[in-house]
Amino acid sequence: MKQPVPEAPTNVQHSNPYNDISRGLFVIRNPESSIKLARVHAATWVTKGPAAGIGHLQFQLMGYTAQPTTAEEYANGVLLDAPDGTKWFDCLTRGLVTKPIMAEYWAINIFYAHYINVDAEKLSQEEIDNANTQAAVFTATMGKPYDLKAIDFQVSFQAVGGQPISRISMALGIDYELNGAAEHMDIGDFPTVDFDPVRFAGLTIRNQRE
Question: Which residues pair with 170 in a beta bridge?
Answer without folding.
Answer: 155
